[in-house]
Write a structure and sequence with these properties.
alpha+beta, elongated, single chain, 3-stranded antiparallel beta sheet
Length: 83
Protein backbone atom coordinates (compact mmCIF):
# COMPACT_ATOMS: atom_id res chain seq x y z
CA UNK A 1 0.00 0.00 0.00
CA UNK A 2 1.30 3.42 -0.96
CA UNK A 3 0.06 6.99 -1.01
CA UNK A 4 -0.76 8.13 -4.55
CA UNK A 5 -1.20 11.69 -5.78
CA UNK A 6 -3.39 12.31 -8.82
CA UNK A 7 -3.09 15.53 -10.81
CA UNK A 8 -6.31 15.81 -12.79
CA UNK A 9 -6.87 18.39 -15.54
CA UNK A 10 -9.73 19.19 -17.84
CA UNK A 11 -12.59 17.02 -18.87
CA UNK A 12 -15.93 17.83 -20.43
CA UNK A 13 -17.88 18.02 -17.16
CA UNK A 14 -17.81 17.77 -13.39
CA UNK A 15 -17.53 14.31 -11.86
CA UNK A 16 -16.93 12.55 -8.57
CA UNK A 17 -15.32 9.22 -7.79
CA UNK A 18 -15.20 7.17 -4.61
CA UNK A 19 -12.84 4.26 -4.05
CA UNK A 20 -13.06 2.08 -0.92
CA UNK A 21 -11.31 3.44 2.19
CA UNK A 22 -10.34 6.73 0.54
CA UNK A 23 -11.68 10.28 0.43
CA UNK A 24 -14.06 11.05 -2.41
CA UNK A 25 -12.73 12.84 -5.46
CA UNK A 26 -14.67 15.86 -6.73
CA UNK A 27 -13.41 17.34 -10.01
CA UNK A 28 -14.96 20.49 -11.47
CA UNK A 29 -13.24 20.34 -14.86
CA UNK A 30 -10.32 22.62 -13.98
CA UNK A 31 -7.34 21.31 -11.95
CA UNK A 32 -7.72 18.91 -9.02
CA UNK A 33 -5.16 17.23 -6.78
CA UNK A 34 -6.43 14.06 -5.10
CA UNK A 35 -4.65 11.63 -2.80
CA UNK A 36 -5.51 8.02 -2.18
CA UNK A 37 -3.96 5.03 -0.43
CA UNK A 38 -3.83 1.71 -2.23
CA UNK A 39 -1.94 -0.66 -4.43
CA UNK A 40 -0.53 0.01 -7.89
CA UNK A 41 -3.52 -1.86 -9.31
CA UNK A 42 -6.00 0.36 -7.46
CA UNK A 43 -4.15 3.50 -8.61
CA UNK A 44 -4.18 2.25 -12.22
CA UNK A 45 -7.92 1.50 -11.97
CA UNK A 46 -8.61 4.98 -10.59
CA UNK A 47 -6.53 6.63 -13.32
CA UNK A 48 -8.34 4.60 -15.97
CA UNK A 49 -11.74 5.63 -14.64
CA UNK A 50 -10.70 9.29 -14.60
CA UNK A 51 -9.41 9.08 -18.18
CA UNK A 52 -12.64 7.36 -19.29
CA UNK A 53 -14.51 10.43 -18.01
CA UNK A 54 -12.47 12.63 -20.36
CA UNK A 55 -9.93 14.17 -17.98
CA UNK A 56 -6.15 14.04 -18.22
CA UNK A 57 -4.46 12.50 -15.19
CA UNK A 58 -0.88 12.14 -14.01
CA UNK A 59 -0.22 9.79 -11.08
CA UNK A 60 2.69 10.05 -8.66
CA UNK A 61 3.67 7.78 -5.80
CA UNK A 62 5.11 9.23 -2.65
CA UNK A 63 8.05 6.93 -2.29
CA UNK A 64 11.67 7.95 -1.95
CA UNK A 65 14.30 6.53 -4.25
CA UNK A 66 17.32 4.87 -2.62
CA UNK A 67 19.35 8.00 -3.40
CA UNK A 68 16.74 10.26 -1.77
CA UNK A 69 16.64 8.03 1.31
CA UNK A 70 20.45 8.11 1.62
CA UNK A 71 20.48 11.91 1.25
CA UNK A 72 17.72 12.33 3.85
CA UNK A 73 19.52 10.09 6.32
CA UNK A 74 22.80 11.97 5.69
CA UNK A 75 21.19 15.37 6.26
CA UNK A 76 19.62 14.12 9.49
CA UNK A 77 22.95 12.74 10.71
CA UNK A 78 21.62 9.17 10.78
CA UNK A 79 23.76 6.14 10.09
CA UNK A 80 23.35 4.55 6.69
CA UNK A 81 20.81 1.75 6.45
CA UNK A 82 22.31 -1.72 6.87
CA UNK A 83 22.60 -3.53 3.57
Amino acid sequence: MKVWTFLIRGGPSDFSLTLPNNPSLYHDGSITIWKMVGTQETANTGAGLIRSLGAAVTVYTEEQSKEQEAERRSLLGLTPEPR
